[in-house]
From TrEMBL:
Belongs to the class I-like SAM-binding methyltransferase superfamily. rRNA adenine N(6)-methyltransferase family. RsmA subfamily. Its EC number is 2.1.1.182. It comes from Ruminococcus flavefaciens 007c. The lineage of its organism: Bacteria, Bacillati, Bacillota, Clostridia, Eubacteriales. SMART domains: rADc (SM00650). The gene is rsmA. This is Ribosomal RNA small subunit methyltransferase A. PROSITE patterns: RRNA_A_DIMETH (PS01131), SAM_RNA_A_N6_MT (PS51689). GO terms for molecular function: 16S rRNA (adenine(1518)-N(6)/adenine(1519)-N(6))-dimethyltransferase activity; RNA binding. It catalyses: adenosine(1518)/adenosine(1519) in 16S rRNA + 4 S-adenosyl-L-methionine = N(6)-dimethyladenosine(1518)/N(6)-dimethyladenosine(1519) in 16S rRNA + 4 S-adenosyl-L-homocysteine + 4 H(+). It is found in: Cytoplasm. Its main location: cytoplasm. Residues 34-209 form the Ribosomal RNA adenine methylase transferase N-terminal domain. It holds the Pfam family RrnaAD.
Length: 284
């Protein structure tokens, strides 16, 4: 069964009475070259267990299962379960969990399902919830080594931007705090059924090589980052005064201690400067 053949896909979906949900951002991959590349770049190999987020009809799931020791796929749409029973029937190393990944206890999943295995995440993420899922995975500090995901091309540009440039955002700072990120390859909109209105890209985040602050400092750091980027065109003094209620004089003092101008905006500070600024501001 070729799950990227459009005729086959339509026949399976029709037979099960399945219709695409715009609310769930469902766009199934029909380009046969994409999923093998995601699997090969996403640590789907011997010694690894892989968590997949969203299965579609199992195109990526099957490629992961061919390579990894075990695959646990978290799929929110219960209508896909009978389809997956059919399309993944040949694999005995796949488990489907019918839950919202944002509510799923992934730490317990890892403990229960991947004993003795290294762990990676691979997914074709719905565009509407890309950032929340990525930040949930990062902030949870799960014992995972990499996150390889397909996202909207514009989101990939922001995720992979250099901190301290105009393309960066709070999510850019987040991924660089927890690890390192790189874009692997682009994916055209014609690779999906139905075709979305935008192109996509596959990125990989390698964890464990990022920054480490104590819990209190980390919480304050991310409060500053989120406040600054929520009003990114304003100066740091104005945005932090507006969102966090920090007196401008304290912001100016923290900036001055680092040799930064009073008119600095958050998008102009690189990762090292952001961490130093947060620490200086906290001391104030």
């Amino acid at each position: 069964m070729i799950l990227t053949n459009i005729g086959t896909v339509k026949e399976i979906l029709s037979r099960h009475g399945f219709s695409f949900s715009k609310g769930l951002g469902q766009n199934f991959i029909v380009n046969p070259d994409i999923c093998p590349r995601i699997a090969e770049n996403g640590n789907a190999c011997k010694g690894f267990g892989v968590i997949e987020i969203g299965t579609g009809i199992g195109v990526l799931t099957s490629e992961l299962a061919k390579r990894a020791e075990k695959v646990v796929a978290v799929e929110i749409d219960s209508r896909l379960l009978p389809i997956l029973d059919e399309t993944l029937a040949d694999f005995d190393n796949v488990k489907i969990i019918n839950e919202d990944v944002m509510k799923c206890d992934l730490r317990r999943v890892i403990t229960d399902e991947f004993d003795g295995l290294r762990v990676a995440v691979c997914a074709n993420l719905p565009y509407y919830i890309t950032s929340p899922i990525i930040m949930m995975l990062l902030e949870s500090r799960l014992p995972i080594e990499s996150i390889t995901v397909m996202v909207q091309k514009e989101a990939a540009q922001r995720l992979c931007a250099k901190v301290g440039t105009r393309d960066s955002g709070a999510i850019t700072v987040g991924v660089n705090y927890y690890g390192t990120v790189k874009k692997l390859f682009d994916v055209s909109r014609g690779s999906f059924m139905p075709a979305p209105n935008v192109d996509s890209a596959v990125i990989r985040i390698d964890l464990g090589s990022g920054c480490r602050l104590d819990e209190k400092s980390e919480k304050f750091f991310f409060s500053v980052v989120k406040a600054g980027f929520s009003q990114r065109r304003k100066t740091l003094a104005n945005s932090l005064a507006s969102v966090m209620g920090i007196p401008k004089e304290k912001v100016y003092s923290a900036l001055s201690s680092l040799g930064l101008p009073e008119a600095a905006r958050i998008e102009q500070l690189d990762m090292e400067q952001l961490i130093a600024f947060s620490a200086a501001l906290s001391d104030k």
